Amino acid sequence: MSQKIKIMILGGARENGKNMYAVQVEDEIFIMDAGLKYPDSSLLGIDVVIPDLQFFQDYADKIAGIFLTHGHADSIGALPYILRDHDIPVFGSKLTIELAKIAVQRENRRRKNDLFHVIDADTEIEFKNANVSFFKTTHSIPDSLGIDISTKEGEIVYTGDFKFDPSAKKGYRTDFVRLSEIAQKGVLALLSDSTNAEANFPNDRQTSIEKYIYNIFENYDGRIIAAAKASNIVRVQEIFQAAAATGRHVFLTGRDAGKIVYTAMKLGYLNVPKGLLVHSKDLKKIPDNELVILETGRMGEPLKSLQKMATNRHRMIKIKKGDLVFIATTPSHSVETMVAQTSDMIYRAGGTVKELGRDKHTSGHATGRDLQMLIDTLKPKFLIPVIGEYRLLEIHKDLAIEAGMNKKDIFLPHNGDAYALEKGRFYRTDAVPGEDIMIDGSGVGDVGNIVLRDREVLSDDGVFIAAVTIDRKKKKIISEPRVSTRGFVYIKANHALMNGAADVIKEAVNNNFEHKKFDWTELKQDVRNDVEKYLYKQTGRRPVVLPVVMEVNQNRHRAMARRNNQENNSEKRPVRKNHHKKDSEQKKAKA
């Protein structure tokens, strides 16, 4: 009897980041990665975005575990929010698990570590309906793994982030022998990385990048400020090597340096020669031509820090004339504009810029040729391109067709799609939760489209506050309306507009009193609508209008009046003298 198998896309399809996928075999669900993505400019005030946590509410009793491919935020970033409410076992390599613990403890210090389990490429975990094993892959962080779920119907393979590089060093090498073994078992479905599918040129080898960085450090006679993501361990290692080889010291700055970089050093994944790293107190003692400042961070954080350095707003470092700023990572399309702006600021401050991505073809993700090579090696029956924006999934599909796959066997998923296996083929079935959950501060999912729309309006046209005090029983306005604004117009230069708005408020309140039965909601809505129309007619802008309607407290006024009357009456009463007290005082005086 065939097994019931379902593949579910929980995040990471048609977007950059937020990778999370699930495979259900009978009544067991295996989660592969649990990542986040960083917001674009349209998500005002949002810190990060994670997959829909409703899935864990609906299927908590079936989830066998969460299996991680590597330690970047796009694979582990959602764990803190999932483990707040669910005790689910988490499996990953040694470095991945350590970084996952850091991420979880940052959000929930009380979370115990007994849920985390360290595995390696030789591990195979037997479950009731399937076995889960792993294989080594090449990425920009060591100990990256792909995942193989072995079922009676065939292997289901998830690559995670990967690329092929025969020159990769130990800890970064792809295990091609293991891939061949998986292929021999028969691959039912392949979920494969699409991030770099449109690359026409092969990635430069790691040895070539090392020589490139060494030449920069060797041939520049001045201070070097290198910017890299803290989680790009391979790049951090290359910078350390080049600094040591050219007689330079390294000073680490950046929010994540002490967490990710030092964790990798402690576990032996970063080789740091003795005396290479220096403290901030030693900076003034070291000549500029012997110093490298390594600015690390997540996503765009190194660039933001460089901007602060260029504009003298950084707490420690200021870019000065003669500095070389080396942007040591290849920026994604979403931050290319930010890179250009940052470079302009650096040149204005007197520094110069060198970008790795302009001189070398380097990425932690597979090129189109790598993807075709993987398909040729595994020969999957079905392909589901994941980890990438829509155009990249389409390109991946075309590459697979070129490699000999039938287009009917390739699925381009949306988040929330589910594919069930029936009679040897996958068919789309009922959707699963696949919406975005937005994190704003400590709030999880409490910011939705309506709040974001209001924030967008506020950022575009500002806010207009209309306050008025009424006597509901007498149906009249007690005091003149007060109006105020932020981000809309300059009040001192627009007295006529503000006075006109006050008149509109009065008219709206009086019309409501005359023609409607009193209702707080309707009154505020009338004020809002009339003011919005007036402001748009006068300015062509639509600020957020906040009506504040206050009611005078009649009982309070009556109580104050009674108290005032009592005080006045007490002042008019004659003062009674205490004769007994006076007589006793006279007797004491005679004595």
From TrEMBL:
Homodimer, may be a subunit of the RNA degradosome. Substrate binds at residues 361-365. Its EC number is 3.1.-.-. An RNase that has 5'-3' exonuclease and possibly endonuclease activity. Involved in maturation of rRNA and in some organisms also mRNA maturation and/or decay. One of its GO terms (cellular component) is cytoplasm. Keywords: Cytoplasm, Endonuclease, Exonuclease, Hydrolase, Metal-binding, Nuclease, RNA-binding, rRNA processing, Zinc. It comes from the Bacteria. Residues 558-591 are annotated as: Disordered. This is Ribonuclease J. The lineage of its organism: Bacteria, Bacillati, Bacillota, Bacilli, Lactobacillales. Residues 17-213 form the Metallo-beta-lactamase domain. Its cofactor is Zn(2+). One of its GO terms (biological process) is rRNA processing. InterPro entries: Metallo-B-lactamas, RibonucZ/Hydroxyglut_hydro, RMMBL, RNase_J, RNase_J_2, RNase_J_b_CASP, RNase_J_bac, RNase_J_C.
